[in-house]
Amino acid sequence: MENAFSSLPVRERIIVALDCSAARARELAGLLEGHATWLKVGMTLYYAEGPSIVEELRARGFHVFVDLKFHDIPHQVQGAARAVACVGADMMTMHAAGGTAMMEAGVRGIEEGAATREGGKPPISLAITVLTSMDADALAAAGVTRV
Fold first, then answer.
1. Which of 60, 61, 102, 147 could cysteine-pair with 98, CB 3.0–4.6 Å?
2. What is the pTM (predicted TM-score) of this model?
């Protein structure tokens, strides 16, 4: 696996997080064109700009990682994943704490959304297990006692 990663061009090894305003995200995208391949759109930017920000970044030639950490009832996650896949996300997240049925519904939504796009390639789906902001106390409060 490490050899596969190191064989990638440098510009494909890094995902730049656009956890900022839309104006700043557009400015950063302009600076990164030709230097980076992947941009991450998180909740703040996505909720402010909606799906159009994903389409805009894709039109500029970037791969877009939509990091919304879906976590809801399976029906809702399936619909949300379908919607994000429809706009062209290349990668997206759901929270593993939602359980297997929810994650399976998310994958179905991803496949449904991808089928509506030319080429039909589904986005990569990632399961988030722990947030990086959680310390040992926060993990213990959530029932994780072995770190």
1. 102
2. 0.88
